TrEMBL record:
Localization of this protein: Membrane
Keywords: Membrane, Phosphate transport, Transmembrane, Transmembrane helix, Transport
Cellular-component GO terms for this entry: membrane
Organismal lineage: Archaea, Methanobacteriati, Methanobacteriota, Stenosarchaea group, Halobacteria
Function: Potential transporter for phosphate.
Membrane topology recorded in Swiss-Prot or TrEMBL: Multi-pass membrane protein
Family as reported in the entry's similarity comment: Belongs to the inorganic phosphate transporter (PiT) (TC 2.A.20) family.
GO BP annotation list: phosphate ion transmembrane transport
One annotated GO molecular function: phosphate transmembrane transporter activity
Database matches in InterPro entries: Phos_transporter
TM region(s), chain numbering: 44-63, 75-94, 133-153, 192-211, 218-242, 262-281, 288-306, 393-414
The protein, known as: Phosphate transporter
Tree of life domain: Archaea
Amino acid sequence: MVTAVLIIGLAVAVFVGFNIGGSSTGVAFGPAVGSRLVSKTGAAALFTGFALLGGATVGTEVIETMGGRIVPADQFTLAASVGVLFFVGLALLISNLFGVPASTSMTAVGAIAGLGVASGSLDYAVMFEIVSAWIVAPVLAFWICAVVGRYLYPYLDAWFGIDRSDGALFVLDRSGSVPIPHLAEDTSRKEGFWSAIVLAISCYMAFSAGASNTANAVAPLVGGGAISITQGVVLAAAAIGLGSFTIARRTLDTVGNDLTDLPLLASLVVAIVSATIITVLSEFGIPASLAVSATMCIVGLGWGRATRTTTVASAATAAIQGSEETTTISTNALAADDTATGTTAGDVAGDVTGDTANGDVAGAGGVPGIGEEEPDELAANDLFDPATTGRVVMLWIMTPSLSAAASFVLFELFPVYGGT
């Protein structure tokens, strides 16, 4: 009987890892695929390798948190582990069917929390620490990229901008016994260098995904002693790779093409910010979501770029006087946020950074100053898709909630956890 339950548990862990690969590959390599730096198959291969590396190093800290800190390790019987992992996989499958990068860590922690509430063993202090990180990380990701998009991006683009050539970046010289890659005829050295940097950062994101997400597939089994940490990492990496090569293709399209116009420089900004946030949290053993942070980086960058058509003074004048002209400008510039608090948040960002210091007059290097760019030249809808973003956020909320509620009901009706 125990052997049969263990086999089921391993199968469910593979099912969860499969869905993690489907979700997180798009987050890590969506920008690179959207910029045509790498094929979907190449992205899947790179993601699998670096996710394994991340899980085997930094990821062990997260496994220990999810396998014994949220609820005591002795609560994870084989039956309880199967129940937790099943609801994680089910919630992730729903998100992947919608083509949205799911919040894997939030969904997994939600299922474990449901077990903890039903068994009365939930460590609320640890949960508060984790949930606080969930709130801070995406907000920090959004505002860092929003500030970059509003105040720094045009200057970075002028200094490091890359004109993407048509066709392949590299060609293989097969004249020798070993094929050697060379830059394609139409590819400049500058384009080749920055393309390699973007690809390297995508691999860094895959490392971060492995560090934070490996635990989501195997932590209950490791915590309960059914498998070792090493066995868990290998099992999770294999399952993640399977998902990367299959169902990740739709998520790659969503992240790389639907959320915002994402040139090479933007890909680099998104990757560096999101991967760094998640790697730091993983070092502290906090299971944070790369999907949430990376997507909020994309949204924040697009929103920040869209707000360059107005200054803080113009937005304030429109709000106070209701001037038709300034209202039109502000509406076009702030179309990425329909709420009243969105304008206030944009004003706060402008006040903190300083519109005057950053270009209310014409910017350096021929870059138009803030408020001088024409709305039709920097259309918000081309930089930021509110409908797609709304769908993503809705499923972020739905999947962990569904996982936690279903897990609680199961263990309340069938108390198969430890100590019963």
